[in-house]
Amino acid sequence: MREVFICDVARTAIGRYGGALAKVRTDDLAAVPIKALLARNAKADWSRLDEVFFGCANQSGEDNRNVARMALLLAGLPDSIPGVTINRLCASGLNAVGDAARAIRSGEMDFAIAGGVESMTRAPFVMGKAGEAFSRSAEVYDTTLGWRFVNPLMKAQCGIDSMAETGENVAEEYQVARKAQDAFALRSQQRAGKAIATGYFAEEIVPVSAPGGKAGPVVVDKDEHPRPDTTLENLEKLKPIVRNPGTITAGNASGINDGAAAIILASEDAVKAHGLTPRARVLGMASAEARPQDRRFRSDRAERGVRLAGHRGAASARRRRRRRVRQSAWRRHCARPSARHVGRTADLDRCTWP
Predict the structure, then answer these.
(1) DSSP 8-state secondary structure symbol assigned to residue 65
(2) Rg of the chain's alpha carbons, rounded to an integer?
(3) Other C-beta atoms within 10 Å of 166: how many?
(4) Residue 25 and residue 62 in contact, taking contact as beta carbons nearer than 8 Å
């Protein structure tokens, strides 16, 4: 099996719901990081790119009809390059990376772009067709988050709990107190703020020119969602959003955001042929599931699958130095910054190139 290298990374800033990226179409948003990768790696022969893999969880609005293909064309790639859109809900972007890596590792391709896009702000309302002629009623669903067109059998068998509801389920079963959740959220916000202030994300963020009304276009180059100036006192004042009494609030729950990201993956031959610089090796990926009402333990199960694969196929020296990156570390690159329905873990190894 061949080695797979991550050679470059680009992403937009993460916009909050209704924020600076609200007026940018989803397919246009997806094209931004792809276009940046092309510009940064001008020596590469992009006509030899094998495929673009893009994750997208919604696909009911401007991201319909294979947003991966639309994005690569909008980014200026040749029309001979294929694109495929992958949906594993919030793990879609990471799944796209896994699919590309497997294809390269198996020898089916050498050179690919993978990533993800989501505009939760621009997620449309959808309405099914009438059940009978001349019907005067219609069901309308908001596709921003949660279920739509629910199968009654699925609801009876598994329930249709949203992410926040499953969070309450886990908090209740494992006695995770509201105070602990708020403290964790505060620490996350503070760490994000510190990273932004020191320019930790600056290299990977690609500015987006967004419509700005009469004042003209607005350049979006900073993450909007983090609120490092929040306090524990402010978090404690927020009301539960699922049930009362409850523990999940807008302050400690996953965000509803807009953004896109892309990375270059290549075989060793492609790295040399296109003058690329490896940054990491993809050693393996695995998936795991749990009860829909829980959405827990999945990352641990997926990690175990990757670990077993590593023991079977990787050299012991590589295993000693490899660095496991869990899904949470990838969410800022791959579509929505929240875990839903599936646990997915990537196993990476930092690399130096002679």
Answers:
(1) T
(2) 21
(3) 23
(4) yes
